[in-house]
From TrEMBL:
The keyword Zinc does not apply. This is TetR family transcriptional regulator. It comes from Micromonospora ureilytica. InterPro entries: Homeodomain-like_sf (IPR009057), HTH-type_TetR-like_transc_reg (IPR050109), HTH_TetR (IPR001647), Repressor_TetR_C (IPR004111), Tet_transcr_reg_TetR-rel_C_sf (IPR036271). Residues 1-34 are annotated as: Disordered. GO terms for biological process: negative regulation of DNA-templated transcription. It comes from the Bacteria.
């Protein structure tokens, strides 16, 4: 059973407590300048350069010119390191909505900001999600997303559900885009040729009598177009926000 605090909450890992300022830094060891932030920054550099699979305590120690065991004075496990990498990888939230923004504009800006982070650092998509966010930057993102919905008719639980819906959509779109890009690179196909080649392949495979709806899509030229992934993202995000708007209006009525 996981350890709990006096109020029944889970005990935070020491490294997480340290980034919240709840724990004193470890006493100085043989490596001057070693700290939780320097370790996490080094791990993020490895992930940025070579992907998440390249991140290990030994690789990070090598980046810092330190012994692997020295890292464990500051970060208790690789799981702790991954949590901190996500916090640093996301970075600061886009900030609260601008005074002139309505809820929809603010949420769209918030979603686009997360989309850009995941596009720039696709390794974040490979970090296992082991629980709700508990680190400073992640909770900052949550705070700013919730503030976009201030003044709406939604209940507080509904606001959280809206954020979960949007961030799930953003992550799914980012995962699809990243995996398709990896697949096209591995196949030696130019991204601009991927959809037209797919359309030609499907046209060869299907019988219009068996797949009439798909045949109509092909006849309209949809699968032959070099789609802009951003267009697909905008379409899906707009439909989600349309649904949120309908809920807000229903609550107001």
């Amino acid at each position: 059973m996981a350890a709990k605090t006096d109020d029944g909450g889970p005990v935070l890992p020491p490294a997480i407590e340290s980034v919240w300022g709840l724990r004193e830094r470890p006493p100085k060891g043989p490596r001057p300048g070693m700290s939780v932030p320097t370790i996490v920054d080094a791990a993020v550099r490895v992930a940025d350069a070579d992907g998440l699979a390249a991140v290990s305590m030994s690789r990070v120690a090598k980046e810092l010119g330190a012994a692997t065991m020295a890292l464990y004075r500051y970060v208790g496990s690789k799981d702790e390191l991954l949590m901190l990498m996500v916090d640093t990888g996301y970075g600061p939230s886009p900030g609260p909505p601008a005074a002139e923004d309505d809820w929809r504009t603010g949420l769209a800006r918030w979603a686009w900001a997360e989309h850009e982070v995941l596009r720039r650092r696709s390794w974040l998509l490979h970090v296992p999600i082991s629980g709700p966010p508990i680190t400073p930057q992640q909770l900052g993102w949550m705070e700013d997303g919730l503030r976009c919905l201030d003044g709406t008719t939604l209940a507080e639980g509904e606001k959280m559900s809206v954020l979960l819906l949007i961030t799930g959509y953003v992550r799914n779109e980012a995962t699809l885009t990243s995996q398709i890009a990896e697949g096209t690179r591995a196949a030696g196909v130019e991204p601009s040729e991927m959809m037209p080649a797919y359309g030609r392949l499907v046209a060869r495979l299907i019988d219009p009598a068996r797949f009439p709806a798909l045949h109509r899509v092909l006849s309209a030229g949809v699968l032959y177009q070099d789609d802009n992934p951003d267009d697909e993202f905008v379409f899906g995000l707009d439909r989600i926000l349309d649904g949120v708007e309908a809920l807000i209006q229903r609550r107001a009525g």
